[in-house]
Specification:
This protein has 130 residues and is mainly β. 4% of the residues lie in helices and 55% in strands. It is built from 1 helix and 10 strands. Strands 1, 2, 3, 4, 5, 6, 7, 8, 9 and 10 form a 10-stranded antiparallel sheet that branches. Strand 4 (49-56) and strand 5 form a beta hairpin. The model has no long low-confidence stretch (mean pLDDT 78).
Length: 130
């Protein structure tokens, strides 16, 4: 889930952004893992960089350093954002990571009135080279 404070509206303003998601279904031959992660810079312009911290079900953590490949592209009514990079520390350190985030489009009516304060979508995390 992404949260925005204050909520997104059709008026230009500074807005704090935070994303926290739960990774549930995991397909892995090497190390089946579920957990949560948080990040404060996703859905930024293409080429921007950032980090995300993953906390796994076994309480270990990983840091994902990424580059935003495409920014948030509007595809079939949803925003699709692709992040690529590596796990730079913790569990899976050195592994290659791709994260694809798919969020629904914002409600125009909500943007014009109360503002959009949260958004829920789907994220797919692929970790290779472990």
């Amino acid at each position: 889930m992404s949260t925005f404070s204050p909520g997104l509206t059709n008026t230009t303003q500074s807005t704090a952004f935070n994303a926290t998601d739960t990774l549930s279904t995991c397909l892995s031959l090497a190390d089946p893992t579920t957990g949560t992660y948080s990040c404060t810079a996703q859905q930024a312009p293409a080429g921007s960089t950032g980090t995300a911290t993953f906390t796994w079900a076994d309480s270990t953590t990983s840091t994902f350093s990424y580059t935003d490949v495409n920014g948030a592209l509007l595809v079939g009514g949803s925003y699709v954002d692709t992040l690529t990079g590596t796990m730079t520390s913790g569990k899976f350190a050195g592994a290659t990571v791709t994260e694809v985030i798919v969020d629904p489009t914002l409600s125009v009516l909500q943007c014009l009135t109360t503002g959009v304060s949260d958004l829920t979508g789907v994220a797919t995390l692929t970790v290779t080279g472990i």
